C-alpha cells in the first residue's frame, strides 16, 4: 500500500510538472493546446479505435458514441446545472430530475403531442419553461432552510413524475413518442442510427453552458452564491439580497436541467414517466458531490464517472448498482470533498488586476 | 461630531418568548462620533446590534436612520441604506479569499446582475474593477493586504478580526457597528486596533462600538452608553460614566444581589 | 353514495390511515433522532427498516419454523403461543435493525466524522476488495475469497488514513448515506432467495374484527399496530427524558461541543441514538409485516421518503412531532386517495407538506431542539 502511495505522489508531481510547464508556455502555445483538446473531445467517438489505449475507454455492450451522448453528455449537463444550485449556492435539491423532465416534456408536447414545432424552436421554450418552473417552485420554498428544502424539492420531483403519469394531456403512462429531432445541417444528419451528430450537438451545448456559468461564477453573482453557501445570515447582513440570488441559482440550475432534458428528448424521440424516477435525482446529486461540489471541472468529472463507469464495466452488470453504492461510501470516506475538490480561487485577484496586462505579456 | 442624529434607537423593547432582552432602550447616535456601548455580559448589547441591523424585529419601538424608519426593512436593505456590522464570533466566508470577502461587501453598492454578468457588459466590468480596487484599498487600510488571496479560514486570528472590519467598510456604510472587535487581543493589539478605529472615524464614518473592556471604550469613545439587564442605566462622556455609581454597581455587582 | 356509507368509509379510512401513520411515525423517529443529534438526513434508515422486515421474516420462517401455508390455510396461532411468537419476532426485528443501524454508523458515517475505528476500516477494506475483485471475476464465492484476502492489507492502510480527525462537509454524509442505502437494498436484491421479487411473510395472526366503532370494523392487527406504536413512542420518550443516556442524547443534540467539554461521551451517545432509531425501525418493520404480510428489497425507499416527510411535517428533531406527522401523513394519504384517486396519493402528501412548511417553516411542532440562529 505504501508503494501505491509513493506511486500516487510521483504521478501527482508529474501532473504538477505538466501544470508548471503549461503556465510557462506562451499565449499562442496555450491557445493551440486548448484548440487541440477541444478537437480531441469532438473526435471522442473514435477514441476506442486508438490502438493500445482504446480499450480503456471502450464500452462493451453499448455503442461508444451512444454512451457518449445518452449518458455522458446528459449527466455532464445535469451535473453542471445542479452544481450551481448545490455546489455554489449550497441549496440541497433532491428533486432536480423534475426540471430535467420538464425540459423533455415541453419538447415532447410542442413537437409531437399537441403541436408540431421544430425541435430547434421548442428548445429555447423548454429552457424558459424549466426556468419558470424553477422560479415558481423556488419562490415559496427558498425561505426554507437546508434540509427542509431538500424534502420539498424531492416532493416536487415526484409531483412532476406522477402528474406526467396520470395526465392524459401529457400522454399518461404511455409517454410521448415521435418527438421532433434537431434539424439536419448539410452532412450533419440527426437520424435514428448515428448518435455522433447528437454527441457533437450536446458537446457544443456543454461548452456553451460552461462558458456562461464560468462568467457567472467569476462575477458578483458567483461571489454572492458562495457567500450564501458559506454563511447565509452573514451574507444578507453584508448587503446580499439572498432571496434574489438563491432564486436565480435555482432558476439557472433549472434552465440547464431543462436543456439537458430537451436534448435527451430530441435524441431518443420517446419519453415516458419511467424515464424520470426519483432515483435519478439522487444519481445526479451523487455525480456532483462525487466529482467535487462547487467546482465545475469536478462536477463534469463526476458526471462522466457516473455515466460512463457503469457502461465500461459490464461484466458485472447485475452488481453495478451495488458497486455504485459501495463506491459512493468509499469515495466520501476518503475524499469527502469529491475527486476534484474545489479550491479557493486565488485567481480572482490576479485576473481582475492584470486585465490589461495579460495581453502585453 | 455634529449634532445631527444619524441613528435614533427609539424606545425599543425586545422580547424572546417570556424573556425581555431589551426594555425601552433609547439611544441616539450622532454623525461622526464614536459611541461606546458597554455593559456586563448578557446586558443586551448584541441584541441591540441585532435589532439595528434587522436580525430581529423589535417587539416595540422604532429604529430611525438618517431620518427614515428602518425597523421593517429587510436585512440587506438596511445594509444598503448605510449600516454595516461585524460579528462578535467571527463570521467570515471561510472558503473565499480575503479580497473576495471584502468584495462581497463592496458588491452591496453594485447593481449588475445575471444578464450583465453573462454578457460582461462594460458597466459590469467597470463595477468588478471598482469592487476589486476598493477592496484592496480597504485591506491595505487594515494592514492585511499581504494575505489578500489567502482563504479567510487560513488567516491568523488578528487578520480575521480586521478582515471583518474591512468587509463591513466595503459596504460604504455611514454607521459602522463593531461587535467586540478587540475580543481575544493582547494589549498591544488592542492599542493598534484603537488607533485603527480612530483612523476610520477620521475618514468620516460614525462608529458604534460594543466592548466590555472598559479601558478600551473609555480611551476612544466620544460618548458612552451603558446597558444592564436590558435597560439603559447611564449615558454620557466617558469620565462621567466612569464615575456613575449605577455603572460601578453593575460592573462590581450590587451588594443587595446577595439578599 | 348513501350517507351511512360515506360515514363508514370515512372511519374506515381513518383507522387504516392511523395504522399506516403509526408505521410512518416509528420510522420517522429514527430520522428525527439522528437528525437531532447529527444534523444528518440518515438516508439509509429506510434500509434499516427493510432489513427489519426481513429479520421478521427469517425469525418466523427459520427460527420458529412457521410455513407460509398449513394445509392450504394461513398458519394461525392463538393464545399464549401467538403472543410469544409475536414478541419473539418483534424482538428479533428490533435487535437486528438496532445492530444494523449501529454498524451503518460505524462504517458509513463515523469515518466521515474524522473518528473512524478498526471496525469501520475492516468493513470498508472488505468492501473495497470485493469491488476490486469484481473487475476481474464475477462469481460470488471467488469474490468473497478475494475480498477476505484483500481485507487485511487494505484495512491496515485505511486505519492510517483514518487518523486525520477532520470532519467532512455535510453533503459528504448525505452521499455516503445514499451510497449505503443503495448498497444494502441491492445486496438483498442480489443475494436474497427471491432476488428482486416480493416475499410473503407468514400470517400467524388471524385478522379478526376486534370491535365495531362508528360503523366501522376495527381489525385486531390495526389495533396492535397503533397501540404498539404508541407504547414504543412512550418508552422512547421516557428513555430520552428520564435516563442518564437520554440526557446525554439531549445534551449532544443541543450542542455537541459543549456536551463533549462537559464530559459526555459523544461517540457513545451517537451509537445510542442510532441504536434507538434502529430499534424503532425494527419495531415498525415487524408491525408492517403483521398488517401487510410482505416485503421486498426496495420496500424501504418510498416508505423512508414518506417517513422523513412525516418527521419534517411534525417538526424534525421532535419526538412528538414524528408521531403527529406520521398520523397526519397516514390520514392525509388515505383521505386524499379516496377523494382524488389513489394515483394522486403522493402528490397530496407532498402538497400538504409544502403548505404546512409555508405556514410553519420548521414543521407543526417546530424543532424542539432548534437553536437560535444568528
UniProtKB/TrEMBL annotation, chain A:
Primary residence: membrane
InterPro entries from the UniProt entry: ABC_transp_permease, LivM-like
Membrane topology: Multi-pass membrane protein
Keyword Lipid metabolism: no
A GO cellular component entry from the record: plasma membrane
Organism: freshwater metagenome
Keywords: Cell membrane, Membrane, Transmembrane, Transmembrane helix
Pfam families: BPD_transp_2
GO MF assignments: branched-chain amino acid transmembrane transporter activity
Subcellular location(s) of the protein: Cell membrane
The protein, known as: Unannotated protein
TrEMBL record, chain B:
GO biological-process terms attached to the record: D-alanine transmembrane transport; L-alanine transport; L-isoleucine import across plasma membrane; L-valine import across plasma membrane
Nucleotide-binding keyword on record: yes
Annotated Gene Ontology cellular component terms: plasma membrane
GO terms assigned for molecular function: ATP binding; ATP hydrolysis activity; L-isoleucine transmembrane transporter activity; L-phenylalanine transmembrane transporter activity; L-valine transmembrane transporter activity
Gene3D superfamilies per UniProt: P-loop containing nucleotide triphosphate hydrolases
Keywords attached to this entry: ATP-binding, Nucleotide-binding, Transport
Start and end residues of each ABC transporter domain: 7-254
Name recorded for this polypeptide: Unannotated protein
Automatic annotation (TrEMBL), chain C:
InterPro entries given in the database record: ABC_transp_permease (IPR001851), BCAA_transport_permease (IPR052157)
Compartments in which it is found: Cell membrane
Keyword Zinc set for record: no
UniProt keyword annotation of Transmembrane present: yes
GO annotation, biological process: D-alanine transmembrane transport; L-alanine transport; L-isoleucine import across plasma membrane
Pfam family membership, one: BPD_transp_2
Record-linked CDD domains: TM_PBP1_LivH_like
GO CC, alphabetical: plasma membrane
Keywords on record: Amino-acid transport, Cell inner membrane, Cell membrane, Membrane, Transmembrane, Transmembrane helix, Transport
GO molecular function terms attached to this record: L-isoleucine transmembrane transporter activity; L-leucine transmembrane transporter activity; L-phenylalanine transmembrane transporter activity; L-valine transmembrane transporter activity
Membrane topology: Multi-pass membrane protein
Entry's transmembrane regions: 20-41, 48-69, 81-104, 116-136, 142-159, 171-192, 222-240, 268-291, 347-366
Membership in a protein family: Belongs to the binding-protein-dependent transport system permease family. LivHM subfamily.
The protein's name in its UniProt record: Unannotated protein
Amino acid at each position: 500500500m505504501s508503494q501505491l502511495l509513493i506511486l500516487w505522489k510521483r504521478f501527482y508531481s508529474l501532473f504538477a510538472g505538466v501544470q508548471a510547464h503549461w503556465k510557462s508556455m506562451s499565449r499562442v502555445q496555450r491557445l493551440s493546446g486548448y484548440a487541440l483538446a477541444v478537437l480531441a473531445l469532438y473526435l471522442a467517438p473514435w477514441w476506442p479505435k486508438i490502438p493500445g489505449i482504446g480499450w480503456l475507454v471502450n464500452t462493451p455492450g453499448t455503442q461508444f458514441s451512444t454512451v457518449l451522448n445518452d449518458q455522458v453528455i446528459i449527466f455532464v449537463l445535469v451535473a453542471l446545472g445542479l452544481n450551481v444550485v448545490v455546489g455554489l449556492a449550497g441549496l440541497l435539491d433532491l428533486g432536480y430530475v423534475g426540471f430535467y423532465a420538464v425540459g423533455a416534456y415541453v419538447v415532447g408536447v410542442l413537437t409531437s403531442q399537441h403541436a408540431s414545432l421544430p425541435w430547434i424552436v421548442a428548445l429555447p421554450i423548454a429552457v424558459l419553461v424549466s426556468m419558470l418552473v424553477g422560479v415558481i417552485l423556488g419562490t415559496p420554498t427558498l425561505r426554507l432552510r437546508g434540509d427542509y428544502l431538500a424534502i420539498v424539492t424531492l416532493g416536487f420531483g415526484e409531483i412532476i413524475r406522477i402528474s406526467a403519469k396520470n395526465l392524459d394531456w401529457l400522454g399518461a403512462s404511455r409517454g410521448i413518442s415521435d418527438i421532433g429531432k434537431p434539424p439536419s445541417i448539410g452532412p450533419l444528419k440527426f437520424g435514428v442510427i448515428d448518435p455522433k451528430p447528437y454527441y457533437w450537438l450536446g458537446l457544443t451545448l456543454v461548452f456553451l453552458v460552461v462558458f456562461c456559468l464560468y462568467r457567472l461564477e467569476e462575477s458578483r453573482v458567483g461571489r454572492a452564491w458562495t457567500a450564501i453557501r458559506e454563511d447565509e445570515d452573514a451574507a444578507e447582513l453584508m448587503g446580499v439580497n439572498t432571496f434574489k440570488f438563491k432564486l436565480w441559482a435555482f432558476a439557472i440550475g433549472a434552465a440547464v436541467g431543462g436543456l439537458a432534458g430537451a436534448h435527451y428528448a430530441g435524441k431518443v424521440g420517446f419519453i415516458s414517466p419511467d424515464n424520470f424516477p426519483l432515483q435519478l435525482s439522487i444519481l445526479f446529486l451523487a455525480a456532483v458531490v462525487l466529482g467535487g461540489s462547487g467546482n465545475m471541472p469536478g462536477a463534469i468529472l463526476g458526471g462522466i464517472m457516473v455515466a460512463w463507469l457503469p457502461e465500461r464495466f459490464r461484466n458485472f452488470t447485475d452488481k453495478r448498482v451495488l458497486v455504485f453504492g459501495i463506491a459512493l461510501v468509499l469515495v466520501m470516506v476518503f475524499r469527502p470533498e469529491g475527486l476534484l475538490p474545489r479550491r479557493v480561487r486565488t485567481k480572482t485577484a490576479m485576473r481582475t488586476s492584470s486585465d490589461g496586462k495579460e495581453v502585453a505579456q | 461630531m455634529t449634532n445631527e442624529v444619524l441613528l435614533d434607537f427609539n424606545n425599543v423593547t425586545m422580547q424572546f418568548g417570556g424573556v425581555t432582552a431589551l426594555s425601552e432602550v433609547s439611544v441616539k447616535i450622532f454623525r461622526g462620533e464614536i459611541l461606546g456601548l458597554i455593559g456586563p455580559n448578557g446586558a443586551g448589547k448584541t441584541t441591540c446590534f441585532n435589532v439595528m441591523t434587522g436580525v430581529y424585529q423589535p417587539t416595540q419601538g422604532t429604529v430611525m436612520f438618517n431620518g427614515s424608519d428602518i425597523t421593517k426593512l429587510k436585512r440587506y436593505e438596511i445594509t444598503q441604506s448605510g449600516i454595516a456590522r461585524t460579528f462578535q464570533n467571527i463570521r467570515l466566508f471561510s472558503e473565499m479569499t480575503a479580497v473576495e470577502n471584502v468584495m462581497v461587501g463592496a458588491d452591496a453598492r453594485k447593481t449588475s446582475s445575471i444578464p450583465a454578468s453573462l454578457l460582461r457588459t462594460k458597466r459590469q466590468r467597470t463595477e468588478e474593477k471598482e469592487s476589486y480596487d476598493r477592496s484592496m484599498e480597504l485591506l491595505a487600510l487594515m494592514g492585511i493586504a499581504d494575505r489578500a488571496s489567502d482563504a479567510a479560514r487560513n488567516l491568523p486570528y488578528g487578520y480575521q478580526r480586521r478582515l471583518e472590519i474591512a468587509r463591513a467598510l466595503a459596504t460604504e456604510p455611514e454607521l459602522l457597528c463593531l461587535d467586540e472587535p478587540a475580543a481575544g487581543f493582547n494589549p498591544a493589539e488592542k492599542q493598534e486596533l484603537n488607533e485603527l478605529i480612530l483612523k476610520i472615524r477620521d475618514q468620516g464614518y460614525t462608529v458604534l462600538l460594543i466592548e466590555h473592556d472598559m479601558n478600551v471604550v473609555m480611551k476612544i469613545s466620544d460618548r458612552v452608553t451603558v446597558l444592564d439587564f436590558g435597560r439603559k442605566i447611564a449615558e454620557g462622556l466617558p469620565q462621567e460614566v466612569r464615575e456613575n455609581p449605577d455603572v460601578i454597581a453593575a460592573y462590581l455587582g450590587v451588594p443587595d444581589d446577595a439578599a | 353514495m348513501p350517507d351511512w356509507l360515506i360515514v363508514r368509509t370515512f372511519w374506515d379510512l381513518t383507522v387504516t390511515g392511523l395504522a399506516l401513520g403509526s408505521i410512518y411515525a416509528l420510522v420517522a423517529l429514527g430520522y428525527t433522532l439522528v437528525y437531532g443529534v447529527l444534523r444528518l438526513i440518515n438516508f439509509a434508515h429506510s434500509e434499516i427498516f427493510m432489513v427489519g422486515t426481513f429479520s421478521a421474516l427469517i425469525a418466523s420462517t427459520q427460527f420458529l419454523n412457521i410455513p407460509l401455508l398449513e394445509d392450504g390455510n394461513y398458519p394461525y396461532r392463538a393464545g399464549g403461543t401467538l403472543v410469544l411468537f409475536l414478541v419473539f419476532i418483534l424482538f428479533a426485528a428490533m435487535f437486528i435493525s438496532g445492530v444494523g443501524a449501529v454498524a451503518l454508523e460505524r462504517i458509513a458515517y463515523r469515518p466521515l466524522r474524522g473518528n473512524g475505528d478498526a471496525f469501520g476500516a475492516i468493513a470498508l477494506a472488505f468492501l473495497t476488495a470485493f469491488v476490486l475483485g469484481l473487475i476481474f471475476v464475477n462469481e460470488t464465492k471467488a469474490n468473497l475469497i478475494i475480498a477476505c484476502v484483500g481485507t487485511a492489507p487494505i484495512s491496515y492502510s485505511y486505519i492510517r488514513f483514518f487518523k486525520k480527525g477532520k470532519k467532512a462537509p455535510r453533503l459528504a454524509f448525505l452521499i455516503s448515506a445514499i451510497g449505503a442505502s443503495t448498497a444494502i437494498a441491492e445486496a438483498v436484491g442480489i443475494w436474497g432467495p427471491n432476488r428482486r421479487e416480493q416475499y410473503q411473510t407468514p400470517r400467524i395472526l388471524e385478522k379478526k374484527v376486534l370491535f365495531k366503532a362508528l360503523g366501522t370494523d376495527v381489525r385486531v392487527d390495526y389495533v396492535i399496530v397503533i397501540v404498539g406504536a404508541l407504547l414504543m413512542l412512550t418508552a422512547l420518550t421516557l428513555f430520552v427524558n428520564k435516563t442518564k443516556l437520554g440526557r446525554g442524547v439531549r445534551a449532544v443534540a443541543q450542542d455537541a461541543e459543549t456536551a463533549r467539554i462537559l464530559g459526555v461521551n459523544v461517540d457513545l451517545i451517537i451509537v445510542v441514538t442510532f441504536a434507538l432509531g434502529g430499534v424503532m425501525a425494527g419495531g415498525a418493520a415487524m408491525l408492517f409485516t403483521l398488517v401487510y404480510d410482505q416485503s421486498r428489497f426496495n420496500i424501504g425507499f418510498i416508505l423512508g421518503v414518506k417517513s422523513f416527510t412525516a418527521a419534517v411535517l411534525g417538526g424534525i428533531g421532535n419526538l412528538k412531532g414524528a408521531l403527529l406527522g406520521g398520523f397526519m401523513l397516514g390520514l392525509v394519504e388515505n383521505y386524499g386517495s379516496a377523494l382524488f384517486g389513489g394515483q394522486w396519493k403522493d402528490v397530496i402528501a407532498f402538497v400538504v407538506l409544502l403548505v404546512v412548511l409555508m405556514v410553519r417553516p420548521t414543521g407543526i411542532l417546530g424543532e424542539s431542539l432548534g437553536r437560535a440562529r444568528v
